[in-house]
Amino acid sequence: MKDLDDILEIAAGYQVSKSLFAAVEFNVFNSLSGKGKTIKQLSSELKLPKRSLFRLLGVCTACGLLKKKDGKYYNSKAAERFLVENKPGYIGDFCKANNNFLYNSWGKIEEIIKSDKFHSVFGGKGDTIDRVAIDPKIVRVSHKAQHNYSINPAKELAEKFDFSKYKDLLDLGGGSGILSIMAVKKYPHLTATVFDFTPVCEIAKEIIAEHGVEDRVRTCPGNIIKDEFPKGADLILISGILDGYDEEGCYAMIKKAYDYLPKGGGIILKESIIDDGRTGPLFPAIFSLALLIETRGGDSRSRGEMSGWLKKAGFTGIKFTPLHEISGSYRALGIVTAKKA
Ligand SMILES: C[S@@+](CC[C@H](N)C(=O)[O-])C[C@H]1O[C@@H](n2cnc3c(N)ncnc32)[C@H](O)[C@@H]1O
């Protein structure tokens, strides 16, 4: 921490993020895609009062999401790339999920910390994992967000991990299937199975078909904890799953993977990785608090924790690779990989 300015910037953080969410919800970035518009044009097109919209655009311009020239607003390069719907890097659904589900829960953070209990961000009983398992409406919204979130890491995983040594990938809790999709697109010999809850598999099927890889990526509905893994894989991917379970659950999943794999099989653990001392980086530290809100026993995972579970289960050749180039460094994403000797 440096000075007063830093403290003030942190204090205003919720106002800046809420301004971004509002601009996404109001389709500001979609409307400005590829062309500049005046406040008058935007106000009439978006059906928003000129006076209020002008102030929202002021925040978006001040924080670099928009530019203004000769009376017209334009998307910044980053907004054009990541905040315009249907662009390959779109993260607007991730912003909307933060706005619609998480924002209100964060408003109760003191209460949640005092009670030391999770809080259902979707209303009703059950944590995020339970609700995703049972409620098809929630699944669709939350998985659009997860899909946005995972596109760039999926591309980077396919670039950085050598899938050439393996034939068949089992993607545990594979979500939209995007990690498997990118891997099979890069490696034409590879096949994959997305193993997730039934409503999630329905969405994955649509996305797999959109990418035209139905012949090589299949879905298998089921519970990765309670059900037997579908047979035949020589590589297991566990991406964004360990953060949803407590330590005992994480180790049990890794041990189950070890017992399942043939000799020479491989495992990839992908997470937003917190320091072993749990003091940063900022995103996994925030995520750790978010998981306190959303899950019963979930937490950000560290390299030390993941390596320890792999070693204890019997894996060897444990290696860490950061995923910072395509995914950006803010999320502190990385993979811990290992083999069954
Ligand atoms: C955070 S998402 C990650 C999705 C995907 N692996 C990715 O990285 O984009 C977690 C996924 O794990 C699935 N999941 C969690 N626990 C599960 C369980 N017990 N059985 C099946 N799927 C599970 C959820 O349904 C969800 O799709």
Automatic annotation (TrEMBL):
Entry keyword annotation includes Transferase: yes
BP-aspect Gene Ontology terms: methylation
Keywords: Methyltransferase, S-adenosyl-L-methionine, Transferase
Domain O-methyltransferase dimerisation stretches: 9-84
Single annotated GO MF: O-methyltransferase activity
SUPFAM superfamilies linked to this entry: S-adenosyl-L-methionine-dependent methyltransferases, Winged helix' DNA-binding domain
Protein name as annotated: Methyltransferase
Annotated organism of origin: Candidatus Schekmanbacteria bacterium GWA2_38_11
